[in-house]
């Protein structure tokens, strides 16, 4: 995690860009209009700002998940509240989890632990269970 912490903002933005690359329909969920000067998503400062919040929250969940279940639970409550009314469902959380995992695999390369994928999927399944089920 030290490698990631060094450039949180850049990694956060890269992860969101990877998400949009793999699943373009998610671009429409976000509002990046705070930055009126940006020509592309890559240099959009509004995306940058949101990415920092998102990645810090991931970091907290991973940390609390390991050592403080009550805090983990509170953080999850807050996250589900933040996404209410945004059409974000458990299945979307699993998709983001997969994108994050593949990004981490790219960045960490051989430094990635063999245990990472299973631990990650478990975390994201726990988060996803707190989001609404997508309507059929
Ligand atoms: C573990 C999963 C997730 C975490 C930790 C997370 C975290 C966050 C945080 C912290 C914010 C507030 C950002 C800010 O105030 O700048 C946010 C906003 C948002 N998130 Fe998530 N998120 C997660 C999953 C998702 C998923 C699956 C989607 C669906 C595509 C999503 C879509 C959004 C949208 C649309 C916003 C509002 C952005 C805007 O104002 O334009 N999030 N998220």
Structure in words:
The protein has 136 residues and is mostly helical. It is built from 6 helices and no strands. Helices cover 65% and strands 0% of the residues. The longest helix has 23 residues. The structure holds protoporphyrin IX containing FE (HEM). The site of protoporphyrin IX containing FE has 19 residues, from α3, α4 and α5.
Helix content: 55-70%
Q: Note the total helix count.
A: 6
User: How far is the N terminus from the C terminus?
Assistant: 37 Å
**Superfamily at the CATH H level?**
Globins
Highest CATH level, the class: Mainly Alpha
Mean pLDDT over the full residue set = 86
**What compounds sit in this structure?**
protoporphyrin IX containing FE
Shape: globular
Question: Could you name the key traits of this structure?
Answer:
136 residues, mainly alpha, Globin-like, 6 helices, 0% strand, globular, binds protoporphyrin IX containing FE
Give the SSE layout.
Elements: H1 2-6, H2 8-22, H3 45-67, H4 69-82, H5 90-108, H6 116-128
The site of protoporphyrin IX containing FE has 19 residues, from helix 3, helix 4 and helix 5.
In short:
65% of the residues lie in helices and 0% in strands.
């Amino acid at each position: 995690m030290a490698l990631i912490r060094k450039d949180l903002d850049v990694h956060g933005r890269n992860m969101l860009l990877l998400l949009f690359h793999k699943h373009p329909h998610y671009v429409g969920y976000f509002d990046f209009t705070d930055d009126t000067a940006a020509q592309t998503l890559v240099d959009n400062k509004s995306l940058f700002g949101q990415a920092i919040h998102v990645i810090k929250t991931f970091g907290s969940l991973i940390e609390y998940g390991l050592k403080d279940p009550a805090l983990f639970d509170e953080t999850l409550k807050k996250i589900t509240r933040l996404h209410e009314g945004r059409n974000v469902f458990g299945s979307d959380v699993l998709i983001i989890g997969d994108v994050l995992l593949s990004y981490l695999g790219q960045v960490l390369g051989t430094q990635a632990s063999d245990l990472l994928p299973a631990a990650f999927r478990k975390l994201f399944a726990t988060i996803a269970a707190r989001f609404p089920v997508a309507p059929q």
